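hey can u run this one w/ thiamine diphosphate bound, need the structure tokens asap thx
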Amino acid sequence: MTAQASVADELIGALAEAGIDNVFGLPGGEVVEVLDSIRRSEIDFTLVHHESSAGFMASATARLTGRPSACLATLGPGSTNIVTGVAHAYLDRAAVIVITAETSQHLLPGHTHQVLDLEALFTPITKASYRLNPGEAHEMVRKAIALATTGRPGPVHLQISNDVAAAETSAPKPGPTLPSSEPAGNDKLQRARQLLSDSKRPILIAGLGLEPEGPYKELLQLAESVRAPVIVTPKAKGAISDDHPLAAGTIGLTRTDPAYEVLDQADCVVAVGFDVVELVKPWEHPAPLIWLAPWPNQDPRLPAAAEVIGPMGPALRRLAEAESHSLDGWGSKIVDAHRSKSPILRSTRSNSARMAPQAVLRVLRETLDSEALITTDVGSHKILTCLEWQAFVPNRFLVSNGLSSMGYSLSAAIAAGLVLRDTSIVCTVGDAGLLMSMGELATLARLDIPVTVVVFKDHALDLIRSHQNRVGQLTYGTEFTAPDFVQIAEAHGIPAERVSTEDDLTMAVKRFIPSMKPGLIEAEIDPSTYSTTPVVG
Ligand SMILES: Cc1ncc(C[n+]2csc(CCOP(=O)(O)OP(=O)(O)O)c2C)c(N)n1
Ligand SMILES: [Mg+2]
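ok here u go:
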């Protein structure tokens, strides 16, 4: 990049240098300079129909590529709209560069139209918020990218006005290079190995921080060498294949997730890339905890007996050398015993003319190949999907779990389709979640991405209705008449079908998935078999 580049070109050039090939967004007049710079670059711009979707798409892209990603919105309403997507990137730990417009400084303070304090708006939901200026653009953009990706990943906000975007940058100043992550200290590893070796009932918890490093092979080696069951959080589903004898299930959804039964028996917990942001129930396990992650443990509730910060692969390999004193009845035996007790997707049937939501997942699992990617939205269907979806490969299950925001799954599936061209992609979503994010059906149709949307139609904010009923309240404000999603999809040119039986669903999935085109299946479900539904009577 030469000293004569505009600030916008500098910004976009730095994004390209960082491996970003797509900016998701919805522009306003105040970002047209940046948009034009994208047009002239090797980076694509993907227009979305609500700015929060841009944040969701950028986050999903970062998670699937292992590189930072970017989204763009205008000032004022564009910035307030993108907030949910940025908050998702923040709490779901995604390295996202958030570019927004700002009012040109020379117009201030006399000009008040659409003016908001964007730094104040974004500071609590980003790792930092910077205002670009021509004198420091080169350094600031690189600093933003490094900050987003270093340690615990997260979004960084950059404000840029059209004036600044069009101005020439100053020559880059040589800046300090960022320290790479510290190699794990030997003493800490030594302590961790000792703890593990002393343990009779060790357990591994795999969390969202396994990405982007992806030390799955090493995780499995450690689990097998010390015969430790592996529990995953929702964002780490697939870290161990769910058909592995040590795969003990998922925690993070409710206070009584079945896998807690296994966790409760552990006398040593190895937490790998674990982040309590994924847990609904506060951590209260007394066993010594070994922390392995690229970033320090920042949770006061999670006192780590040994904390190994840095690349997880080498640390896992060293731990696998620990002498194992695991009990005979531990490991796969305890997992087996637990599995035979937990709710089983395979058996739940509905008593009504509509399908049990479990049946929808069962058909999807039986029909999709093991490499298929599934996204879930937020609601009763998310809890079921996170607990019971069998994930066989890492990083093919996308969910908003730190923030748990409705409206995520369609955007995430679209982003996945842009990254993984040959993968079957299914977006599962509640009827309210689809109504919230429906504008992106237009994006799906326009980009012609092979995503099959499966909407769980129950005419309710079911999870909230269940909550009301569980605490003894009457159902109020949580039911609605869902529209005909088939017609809505078809209006976008997306083939669609309504199903209420497993056979029809199987046929629809078998038709839509191989078509390599967008598709929508409206599944009429009976929510009464959700485990979150209170038992009446
Ligand atoms: C943006 C956002 N608004 C509100 C909520 C609170 N919330 C959690 S689940 C839920 C109901 C979702 O309904 P639906 O999408 O139909 O899924 P269902 O529970 O019926 O499976 C709501 C309102 C949320 N998580 N995110
Ligand atoms: Mg619903």
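The chain has a mean pLDDT of 94. anyway lmk if its weird
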